[in-house]
Amino acid sequence: MPRHLKILFGPEQRLMTFVMNEILCATKSIDIEVYLITSKRIANRIVKAHEKGVNIRMIVDGKLAKKRYSRHKFLMKKGIEVRPLRVWHGAMHNKFIIIDQKKVIAGSPNLSNDANYRNHEFIIVSEDRELVRAFAYRFDKMWEMGGVRKKTDKGA
Question: Does residue 151 lie within any of the structural domains?
């Protein structure tokens, strides 16, 4: 396996614990594109990173963002820019995180407790510049598609 590539499998490797640690290690930026965030622990780690000055942008699926168990509204109240994105004929189902524009974490899990303790999931972690650039390009395109939502907006 190339040294710039790491693969983890859950639940035995506690994928969300790995993700939370990576979030806390960020120093400049975190871009998160995920179908759903339901974990309070992960949301709190994102807030901690934001409070230490890390710039955070998040895209979530616009349909699921209306569910009461989504933690994105909590993040918005803490000053984190979140864009619920509705796509036609399907869902915004991507699941990846870019840390400091140097590392990408991509795979099957949503940011949930089940992804850490119950579900059989995988993540791939890479610091390959081309791969990180490809995910960053995709994130920026999706970011442009989503409208900025404030905590007072209806449906956010």
Answer: no
